[in-house]
């Protein structure tokens, strides 16, 4: 049976040529393609600096380290995200906690954040950093989160893994107007791909320096950064304990080539979304709400089964769609449901809205190469479900 996936990369002949050119060149890694890609993405976002990484997970880890997240600190994120948004803080020895989502945007709810901050201040345990996640490519309400950060003194890392090309209040996500660092992912299901890869943008020179240092073992060759004097032309020093979180030139060349089609990809995703919006309006599903401040990148199109008689159930609908060749998915299982986080002391039901969302959400096919025939198959299948 043919399966229509929920997401898929789009690779062109010129993407393949771009990678081939690197393979024929002198540098497979640490060559010119990486800084070129970093500059392209940073310029596009109107951010000053970009650091390409082996994955968004690595980028999030570097962002936490650059901001000084360490043992004894607390970091907050959304429960409805991929586990990496939380794990990056655990890698630094910090404790993670979760702020419930809004049932409109499915993003971290600013009201819930404010209430939690008030309680945390009374308890003397304010977060060092907050990691809002732009779920499905729709920006969080960053202006409000930023205001709260000024009042309560925490850093902000935007997990924009879904959101390259998205806009918030007319500016590109990644401009970092309301955050310290923004991290993108280039995993093949995301908006543009480098195979594996991520990129962290910032306007802060010191944060950029720290992320670049830690990306490559904590090693520098820069004479001005050395402790003491250079011992010769071969000389370098390890200043901090860093990692090998580098992106290769093959990946960066693919990224630069994909990047040329970014706006086109997003325009196509919007067309697909518009078609779902109109055809599924009177279906058994709640459609994704779009805030007026947001221009989504539509990484995902998430629908929620309305609470009717609840026949068929969420699970039955999910299985029905899969059995009919529609590769639906669920983004995401609340992070604190995972056994690892349960062992850290989180109970099921910890975030009320996240639980409601999890019991209803389904990601339906959304990718630029989804043709109108396949989209119609998806729509017809969804319209055949009646839960009145
Ligand atoms: C994909 C994803 C990540 C991790 O990205 P990688 O590049 O695979 O490491 C982190 N957060 C969110 C929200 C994601 O969707």
Would you write up a description of this structure?
With 388 residues, this protein is of the alpha/beta class. The chain has 13 helices and 17 strands. It has helices at residues 13-23, 33-45, 56-66, 84-91, 110-123, 142-152, 205-215, 249-259, 262-279, 314-323, 339-343, 352-358, 372-383, and strands at residues 4-5, 49-53, 74-77, 95-98, 129-131, 155-159, 167-168, 171-172, 181-185, 198-202, 219-220, 237-238, 285-286, 294-295, 301-305, 326-327, 361-364. The strands form 5 sheets. A 7-stranded mixed sheet has the order 2-10-9-6-5-3-4, with helices on both faces. Helix 2 packs parallel to helix 8 (249-259) and helix 3 (56-66) crosses helix 4 (84-91). The longest helix has 18 residues, at 262-279. 48% of the residues are buried. The model has no long low-confidence stretch (mean pLDDT 97). The protein binds pyridoxal-5'-phosphate (PLP). Pyridoxal-5'-phosphate is lined by residues 55-57, 81-82, 84-85, 133, 159, 161-162, 185, 187, 198.
Describe the protein's topology.
Blueprint: E1 4-5, H1 13-23, H2 33-45, E2 49-53, H3 56-66, E3 74-77, H4 84-91, E4 95-98, H5 110-123, E5 129-131, H6 142-152, E6 155-159, E7 167-168, E8 171-172, E9 181-185, E10 198-202, H7 205-215, E11 219-220, E12 237-238, H8 249-259, H9 262-279, E13 285-286, E14 294-295, E15 301-305, H10 314-323, E16 326-327, H11 339-343, H12 352-358, E17 361-364, H13 372-383
Parallel strand pairs: 1-16, 3-4, 3-5, 5-6, 6-9
Antiparallel strand pairs: 2-10, 7-8, 7-14, 9-10, 11-12, 13-15, 15-17
Residues 55-57, 81-82, 84-85, 133, 159, 161-162, 185, 187, 198 line the site of pyridoxal-5'-phosphate.
